[in-house]
Amino acid sequence: MRNALQIAFLVLAGWLAMAQQKPAAKAKSAPADKPAADSSRLPTEAEVNGFMKATFGYDPQLTWKIVSIKPSQAEGLAEVTVEISGPQGQGGQKFFVSQDGKHAVVGEIIPFGAHPFEQTRRILEKKANGPSRGPASASVLIVEFSDLQCPHCKDANPTIERLINEDPNVRFVSQNFPLPSHNWAMKAAAYADCVGRASNDAYWKFVGSVYSAQNDITADNADQKLTDLADKAGVKGSEIATCAAQPETEARVQASIELGKSVDVNSTPTLFINGRPVGVSGNSYEALKQIVNFAAKEK
């Protein structure tokens, strides 16, 4: 699968191609509040909406919502995230606005240096607390952010399973990242969280069975289907259902989502191999294995 930013870019890029114009040409310059982190100026919501209207207003079927406007990790740039909806679906899009308010850049700002993935690796080593497999002392940590309703996650699962089953030098951690565009994903994440807390072994059986049953699960029957699958995984489904409905379970799932967002996850599945973000279906097993081997040597 393409990585999160590539997927988001494709949504915007297709519509930009239809518009046959560059976003930067429509950006406006206006003073705004200064962020605490640096001296760059943030565009206002009015400016962002004006930019979006100028770019996409030709098509009444396209709508957007501003998700955030904040200082970028790169000094002098503001980071803007919007959610765009239309006939082609829904997607998040991140872009960056220059300090003078005259240019926008669509793409990815990535860390630079001899150890560009170290900060993300440290964050995930400390905070990734989902069900895990493999030795805690493993030299390679793989963290997956996934959505049980996501067909790409289902497609990627056999590749990931092969990778972690064939390499004893890997620790794998599963994190919930249900997407808002999926109508039963949040509920499935809550069930998965409860199954994982009840039995680590049952968790992997449950996840595999949910992927297999994706086409049969709907928003209307999700509770019954997920309860039955929890039973079949080896835990008591009725107890899992009760657990899944608790506010603290929702809070745990939300904490996993926030962890993902803190390392720039916005689509699923997203894998991190010792902090390096890696797409799955866009990489063969052999390519993923190469990255794992390289990470083990560089540890």
Explain the overall architecture.
- This protein has 10 helices and 9 strands.
- Mean pLDDT is 86; it is low at 1-13 and 15-39.
- It folds into 2 domains: 4-106; 118-298, Glutaredoxin (3-Layer(aba) Sandwich).
- It has helices spanning 4-19, 45-56, 118-127, 151-166, 185-198, 200-212, 222-233, 237-244, 247-262, 285-298; strands at 63-71, 77-86, 89-98, 104-106, 132-133, 140-146, 170-176, 270-273, 276-278.
How many helices in DSSP terms?
10
Strand content: 15-25%
Name of the level-1 CATH class of the largest domain? Alpha Beta
- Structural class based on helices, strands and sheet pairing: alpha+beta
**Annotation, overall tally of beta strands:** 9
Which residues sit in consecutive blocks of at least 5 with pLDDT less than 50?
Answer: 1-13, 15-39
Helix content: 40-55%
Sheet with most strands: strand arrangement: 5-7-6-8-9
The main β sheet shows up as: 5 strands, mixed
On the 0 to 100 scale, the average pLDDT is 86
Q: Report the span from N to C terminus.
A: 26 Å
The coarse overall form would be globular
Domains counted in the coordinates: how many?
Answer: 2
Q: Can you name the CATH architecture of the largest domain?
A: 3-Layer(aba) Sandwich
Nutshell version of this structure?
This protein has 299 residues and is an alpha+beta fold. The protein folds into 2 domains: 4-106; 118-298, Glutaredoxin (3-Layer(aba) Sandwich). The protein contains 10 helices and 9 strands.
List the helices and strands and how they pair.
Blueprint: H1 4-19, H2 45-56, E1 63-71, E2 77-86, E3 89-98, E4 104-106, H3 118-127, E5 132-133, E6 140-146, H4 151-166, E7 170-176, H5 185-198, H6 200-212, H7 222-233, H8 237-244, H9 247-262, E8 270-273, E9 276-278, H10 285-298
Parallel strand pairs: 6-7
Antiparallel strand pairs: 1-2, 2-3, 3-4, 5-7, 6-8, 8-9
